[in-house]
Fold this sequence. Notes:
By secondary structure, the chain is of the alpha/beta class. It has one domain: Rossmann fold (3-Layer(aba) Sandwich), CATH 3.40.50. Helices cover 40% and strands 17% of the residues. It contains 9 helices and 11 strands. The strands form 3 sheets. It has a 7-stranded parallel beta sheet, with helices on both faces. Strands 7-11 form a two-stranded parallel sheet. A two-stranded antiparallel ribbon has the order 8-10. Helix 3 links the parallel strand 4 and strand 5. Helix 3 runs parallel beside helix 4. The longest helix has 21 residues. The protein starts with a strand and ends with a helix.
Amino acid sequence: MKTPILVTGGTGTLGQFVVARLRAKGAEVRVLTRHPKPAADGVTYVAGDLETGAGATAAVEGVHTVVHCAGSQKGDDVKARHLMNAAAKAGVRHVVYISVVGADRTPVTSGVDRAMFGYVAAKRAAEEIVASSGVPYTTVRATQFHELAFQAVAAMAKLPVVFAPGGTKMQPVAADEVAERLVELALGEPQGLVADIGGPRIYPFADLARSYLRATGRRRPILAVPAPGGAARAFRAGANLTPEHAVGHVTWEEFLTQRLAV
Ligand SMILES: NC(=O)c1ccc[n+]([C@@H]2O[C@H](COP(=O)([O-])OP(=O)(O)OC[C@H]3O[C@@H](n4cnc5c(N)ncnc54)[C@H](OP(=O)(O)O)[C@@H]3O)[C@@H](O)[C@H]2O)c1
């Protein structure tokens, strides 16, 4: 029997693509999830909650490689701590971690910053937890996924006025292209922090909203309001962008067309 690769968050947007791509490469896959289901198509599911650490030890048992995709708006540092403690004890040989572009250059210092960008600070803390765990690792930072940008503009478009973060640009990338890179990294040797992965084009946030409204035949005024605080200022200065690593191929326009066709 082959040693399974553990994918935390294997039920999520990114993780599902990672699982499918690992399966296509012939890997056995184990998924850690809070909602386990019966094994199917070479994928087994183990119950676990990385917020509490429950199930982490069982999830990493007999595993050499982990792709850590589990994440949420809050507490990714805590999740990383629980996973890495279990991985270190189990002698895991490689953890691949997905972080976010700008994690290292977004100052989250004030209460306003923490309220709006606590997610980014937790990703940075998680990066450090992974790096200092003693487990060989590879960390890659990605820009926002098209899928997330789509969710955001779709939610905003429900209001009569669309409030866009003024001055902020986005470089969205297809989650599946990030998954492709994660799988390549997982099947290779640990490399520490590797080059960012970003989408092919950079757009003012308001333009993403505008193209969504146009594509869905809606008319809404867009009000660009700059968010307060140092972290938002860093984003306006481009901390969340990686123009030198615009390696994704799928553009926002292509994603939008595809997504709205289903
Ligand atoms: N979305 C973006 O634009 C973006 C950009 C750069 C990096 N990232 C990073 O990429 C990763 C995946 O993002 P995504 O957009 O694919 O997320 P997602 O669709 O929201 O999926 C989140 C996944 O995390 C799992 N999860 C959440 N809380 C958990 C917990 N307490 N214990 C165990 N599993 C938990 C969920 O599994 P269950 O519900 O099955 O338990 C789910 O599979 C995250 O680390 C995120 O920070 C995302």
